[in-house]
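Async update (no meeting this week)

Hi team, since we skipped the sync, here's where things stand on the single-chain job. The sequence we agreed to prioritize is pasted below, unchanged from the tracker. I ran it this morning and attached the output directly underneath so nobody has to dig for it. Comments welcome in thread, and please keep replies under the output.
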Amino acid sequence: MKIRQMEKTDIRRVVSLYLDANTFATKENISKWTLEGLLKYPLLNLVAEKNSNIVGAVSGILRKNIGVINDIAVKNNYRNQKIGNLLFQKILNKFKKLKVQKITLWVHFSNIRAIPFYYRFGFKIKRISTTKNIKFVPNGEQIFHLEKRL
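Output:
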């Protein structure tokens, strides 16, 4: 298995992974935000590939020198094989190289089981909110905001 930079030709396969992690979102919206992030921050979008199949992906962006992890997902039948750990460590290292001071991410209430994964990397819950007027996200979603200082 190898971790490599995401390419535009990977978007269709990556979107199907991200749909599983973002049950509230549409395929069209995930395609838009993933492509926007990839075009603007190509170094912060990675895939895990095994036997020419994309089995995991992670996408990040920068906002005013703050790293933001938009998505991470691993194909169901490849979970619990440390692929998520490899992807996450790789993107954290990329943020460090960019001299980012803080990294943030959201966890939707529907995916609350993911929070212990982020805690293992030093993230902590900073606040909980309910979404309102956020691009591509329906109103009324409960969100856990996690943060890690580098």
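Quick observations from my side:
The chain has four helices and seven strands.
The chain has a mean pLDDT of 93.
Reply here if anything looks off.
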